[in-house]
């Protein structure tokens, strides 16, 4: 008598690579919402974006690196040498803050006031 075994479900690879992120054969792990403010918004030409984040991008810092890898205005506006503030779900954070599905991540320059 043959026994029946059940295999756990596996995440299948997408049909096409994530070429826009230069990460071949990646899997989409979560969807987040991006917001850009002030000079960052002006440089990028957009204030919001909904983004499917590939597996392996688990922190705000890794997300920033992913966006910088787009090159051009993205690298200039979000590059590591640039003074930049970040928030995740409307809380100021550093590069080590974890990302969760549905998160809102904002990038903006430091501001001064009087």
Automatic annotation (TrEMBL):
Pfam families: ThiS. Keywords: Nucleotide-binding. SUPFAM superfamilies: MoaD/ThiS. InterPro entries: Beta-grasp_dom_sf, MOCS2A, Mopterin_synth/thiamin_S_b, ThiS/MoaD-like. It comes from the Bacteria. Belongs to the MoaD family. This is Molybdopterin synthase sulfur carrier subunit. It comes from Pseudoduganella flava.
